[in-house]
Amino acid sequence: MSEKFDVIVVGAGPAGTSCAYNCAKNGLKVLLIERGEYPGSKNVMGGVLYRKQMEDIIPEFWKEAPLERPVVEQRFWMMDKESVVQFGYKGLEWAVEPYNNFTVLRAHFDQWFAQKAVEQGALLINETVVTECIVENGKVIGVRTDRPDGEAFADVVVLADGVNSLLSKQLGFHREFRPDEVALTVMEVINLPKDKINDRFNLEGNHGTTIEIFGDSTQGNLGTAFLYTNKESLNIGVGTTLSSMIKAKLKPYELLDYLKKHPMVRPYIEGGESAEYLAHLIPEGGFNSVPRVAGNGVLVVGDAAQLVNAIHREGSNMAMASGQMAAEAIVEAKKDGDFSENSLNRYKEALFGSFIIKDLEKYKDAAHTFETYPQYFKEYLPMMNKAMSKFFTVDGTPKREKQKEIMRSVTAEKGTFKVMQDIYRAWKAVK
Amino acid sequence: MSTTNIEEKQFLLRFKCDTKSHLTVLDHDVCMTQCPDKLCTVFCPAEVYKWEGKRMQVGYEGCHECGSCRIGCPYQNIKWEYPKGGHGIVFRLA
């Protein structure tokens, strides 16, 4: 395998495959290395794939990609023990081309996407772990794998090795992550007949719903849960920062079972058959955790570059867009025959000028704020539930009096100044 | 039926086990003397780690390869590698 390529991409997830696809399409000689039995066999995602960034790579992909359902409704739940405050949006413009997003099952989708890269001319090698980058004179010139004689060389190595990115850590691009920079998420795929799903979620045909659940879904810890509709199954999952999990001594699978038994959730999954259980880390350090993304002969993309917007549950789209930007930078570098950091920094410039880093920058203090001040999840969400209950329960109390009572109960518990402070802090973190 | 405990959850999965562990507890004494909570036995999503009184039992065969133990161990006492290519967990769906 000690062959010379233009580009070696490590990891055939959305970021790596996007990069490999775009490089191969531009005539570069590409080696795409995947450690799993097949692309997708090591990958986990709640399940939402955004149309825009995928379409930028393969127009009208929805006509052939293995998708589950186009999402026509997004709901948000602020859940307490026996109640939920809900809001959301349902729009039929999302049910027709070009759509907004889809639910997907990654083991299916990633295989299809990697196959598209192969069709463009990339060479895909599965079941191969890259153990290190080969560095010579301060420049990455190839990779060493766990195959016998498993060295391969290239002008550029693209690290798309996921959230743990042992390779970029080896290169000194980042230190080990802290437990508050990653979210540990577990999920289950639960089989349920299509008509049951459509009845329970009030859906027609292949339309899909996503529900994000805050509050009691994580027992007040910093994190979220989700319930997504596939064609004939549901994805249900829950995650918190690893630091919250440690602090609260939570067992993630017990949290998942708690969610599944929750009276607000249980009726949706009742009678379903568990098909798979999956655990994964999500990079949630955001802007402040983004490592060095370009070096001599090397680029870092996707989860490996910590490109996830946890607030808007965007990740795979950022992975794909970053992979594409990396490919564009490599194509330009190839024209100049210059693969130095200076030349490859075109990628960094593109990344930082795009929605990706702009959005991460916008929310750079959000996770830290909500972790440091747990009252938002632990106190305000239950308060919100109580307020709604009080307001909508008809008991002969005049509405103005009810409003006063609600405001009093909030400020009595915390003091007016504290409440104002909390509101201002939350607003500042997400503005 | 939908699962109700971790044993049932793990039973749903397909693993292609290597004969050699990709997870190594570097010093069992550290777990014994410095880590009263044995945190990895709590947060590991696959219950890979089990404390057996004197040493940490590592059931690497059921590992999801998430990386939590490496990041979450308060003593950086876990050496964490990927299983050999093509080995370890094989997700079939999501």
Shape of chain A: globular
Largest sheet of chain A: 9 strands, mixed
How far from one another are the termini of chain A? 51 Å
Mean pLDDT of chain A: 96
Q: Classify the secondary structure makeup of chain B into a structural class.
A: alpha+beta
Overall geometry of chain B comes to: globular
CATH topology title of the largest domain in chain A = FAD/NAD(P)-binding domain
- What is the oligomeric state here? heterodimer
Radius of gyration of chain B: 14 Å
Assess the beta-strand content of chain A as a share of residues.
25-35%
How does CATH name the architecture of the largest domain in chain A?
Answer: 3-Layer(bba) Sandwich
Counting structural domains of chain A, the number is 3
Short description:
Chain B: Residues 54-83 form the 4Fe-4S ferredoxin-type domain. The complex is a heterodimer of chains A (431) and B (94). Chain A is α/β, with parallel strands linked by helices and 431 residues long.
Can you put this structure into words, describing what you see?
Chain B: Could be a 3Fe-4S cluster-containing protein. The complex is a heterodimer of chains A (431) and B (94). Chain A has 431 residues and is an alpha/beta fold. Chain A folds into three domains: 4-67 and 104-175 and 289-362, FAD/NAD(P)-binding domain (3-Layer(bba) Sandwich), CATH 3.50.50; 179-283, D-Amino Acid Oxidase, subunit A, domain 2 (D-Amino Acid Oxidase, Chain A, domain 2); 367-430, no CATH class. Chain A contains 15 helices and 17 strands. In chain A, the strands form two sheets. In chain A, strands 3, 4, 5, 6, 11, 12, 13, 14 and 15 form a nine-stranded mixed sheet that branches. In chain A, strand 16 and strand 17 (298-300) form a beta hairpin. The model of chain A has no long low-confidence stretch (mean pLDDT 96). Chain B is globular, with a radius of gyration of 14 Å. In chain B, a hairpin with a 4-residue loop joins strand 3 and strand 4 (56-58). The mean pLDDT of chain B is 97. Chain B has a single domain, classed as 2-Layer Sandwich (Alpha-Beta Plaits), CATH 3.30.70. In chain B, the strands form three sheets. In chain B, strands 1-6 form a two-stranded antiparallel ribbon. Chain B has helices at 6-11, 28-34, 39-43, 68-72; strands spanning 14-16, 23-25, 49-51, 56-58, 78-80, 88-90. Chain B is an alpha+beta fold and 94 residues long. Chain B has four helices and six strands; from the N terminus they run H-E-E-H-H-E-E-H-E-E. The chains are: A alpha/beta (431), B alpha+beta (94).
